[in-house]
Amino acid sequence: MQSLEQTLAAVEGIGRDLNAVTSVMGDRARTLEKKSAERAAAGEEARALEGIPFAVKDVIDVAGFPTTMGSNVSSGPDPSASAPVVSLLERAGALPVVKTNCQEYSYGILGDESAFGRVINPVDPALCTGGSSSGSAALVAAGVVPLALGTDTAGSVRVPAACQGVIGFKPTFGTVSAEGVFPLSPSFDTVGLFARDLPLLTAAFRVISGNGADASPAVSSPAETPRIDLSLLNAADESAAGVRAWASEHLSGSGKATTTSANVDYLTELIERGIDFYDIVRRYEAYVLHKQFLDDQGEQYQPGVWAKILSGQNITEAEYQSNVASLEELRATAESFFDDVDFIITPAMDGEVAAWDELGPESAAKFMRYSLPFNVLGWPAVTLPIGATVGEAQSRMAAGANSPGSAKQAKPESVQIVGPPRSDEKLLEFVSRL
After folding, report:
1. What is the mean pLDDT of the chain?
2. What's the rounded Cα separation, in Å, for the pair 132 and 257?
3. What percentage of the chain reaches a pLDDT higher than 90?
4. Catalytic residue IDs
5. N or C: which end of the chain has fewer CB within 10 A?
6. Is residue 269 a part of any domain in this protein?
7. Backbone angles phi, psi at 221, to 5 degrees
8. Any idea where the Amidase domain is (predicted)?
């Protein structure tokens, strides 16, 4: 593991080059590192995340540093207290080193609008980063930090993770505190994690979910053969061929898993109903949150974000409350799906990771096709890279495989694995066996 000073140098170098950095927290990290050294000198046992540098999406408060939201809009004074999710990581020995550039106010899945400009995808600068947690994904993908915090309302951790070739995890809705995190839509907002190493991500999740920084990892008892639903994967178009091949390879073998593709109609109906509720609830909540800024600072918003916010202004409270009630009913009844299934495997996105110059009116919907439904339902979900990562792309370029014909092979590709609500550690343990 590189030293803290090497990490801070990489933040100032690679991180700045990727336009992923909004604030560097060097002095804070050095102070915490000194306390770690004092603990070690006193013979105290190392904590779960001792000395691990991490990045913080800049909608999450860290005391003494501005929370910019990727915006020129002023939404209040600098925070005097850190978000609990940051404090929990610090108490487990982790070192916050940087706050990261993001889609303005987390409102957009493409990562195309920030007051600081777009983050650069370290796999290939021509490729979209995804959003909204673009900078956190980029710093993990580039190896600047091993761990980062993001937020996920419709895929804003999992989609940039898929676009940049790292692991992205959205926990069960409500499992991780969102206090001290500027919301987009509180009915769906979830704090999530990025990493390249699944055991590290799992350890960090145990910390931020309050399962105890010093708790021993859960010991798995011998499990029955897991039942995997592939309905959405097998119904996807040819762009999912790589994910289907991956699933076939990793789920094959006697007793490893049983699979079904018989639930496509049910899951499709569930998704379509959920998207309708999401559209009303998210637009209403976002408008209510931002209307206090619109008269005096409306011109400071990025144009696309401004338009999204205004799209909620004519939704009535009665319409909103009706959709919230329907959403809660849907979440309650949908859990029974897991009576017969343990996990769901889907593509991470609908289609390939697009280049910036390929984005069009349908791009956002395609990016969110498989992530958004599980924010609506509140179920935990992981995206796992199965295609190009930064290191692989660099190796190909070094070998001269950078011709137009090889570009497709170098694109990131990911699979999404979904579990029942409140089964987060069980889900992560299953993913670790794949």
Report:
1. 92
2. 34
3. 87
4. 57, 132, 156
5. N
6. no
7. -85, 160
8. 4-428
Hey, what amino acid is at 243?
A: V
Going through 315-432 in order, the beta strands assigned E by DSSP cover: 343-347, 381-385, 414-418
Whole-angstrom Cα distance, residue 429 to residue 434? 9
Of the candidates 201, 190, 120, the one whose C-alpha atom is nearest the C-alpha of residue 152 is 190
Tell me the C-alpha distance between 243 and 350, whole Å.
11
Tell me which residue of 138, 137, 135, 130 sits closest to 111, measured CA to CA. 130
Nearest to 304 by CA among 128, 141, 111: 111
Q: Which of 186, 154, 146, 187 is nearest to 170 (CA)?
A: 154
Tokens standing for residue 204: 């960090």
Q: What's the pTM? A: 0.94
Q: Which residue has the tokens 């590709």?
A: 413
Place of tokens 């499990």: 223
| CATH, residue 372 | 3.90.1300.10
| Contact call for residues 52 and 94 (beta carbons, < 8 A) | yes
Contact call for residues 115 and 59 (beta carbons, < 8 A): no
Phi, psi of 260, deg, nearest 5: -145, 150
How many structural domains comprise the chain?
1
Collect all residues with Cβ–Cβ distance below 8 Å to 19 and sequence separation of at least 6: 101, 116, 117, 118, 119, 120, 135
Q: What distance in Å separates the CA atoms of residue 270 and residue 45, rounded to the nearest whole number?
A: 48
- Identify whether the C-beta of residue 78 lies closer than 8 Å to the C-beta of residue 64: yes
pLDDT tens string 308-355: 999 999 999 999 999 999 999 999 999 999 999 999 999 999 999 999
258 occurs within a structural domain: yes
Q: What number of residues does the chain have?
A: 434
In a domain, 421, yes or no: yes
pLDDT tens, 85-144?
999 999 999 999 999 999 999 999 999 999 999 999 999 999 999 999 999 999 999 999
Distance of alpha carbon 239 from alpha carbon 261, whole angstroms = 18
